[in-house]
Amino acid sequence: MTHITLALDLEGVLITNAISQLPRPGLKSFLEQSETLFDRSNMCIFTTVNEMRFRTIADRLVADGYAPDWFATIRYIDWVGEHKDLRFVREDIDKVIIVDDYPPYIKQTQRHRLVQVKQYLEPYTHADPDMKDRELDQVIEKLKTVISG
Question: In a 10 Å sphere around its CB, with 0-12 CB exposed, 13-18 middle and 19+ buried, how is residue 2 labelled?
Answer without folding.
Answer: middle
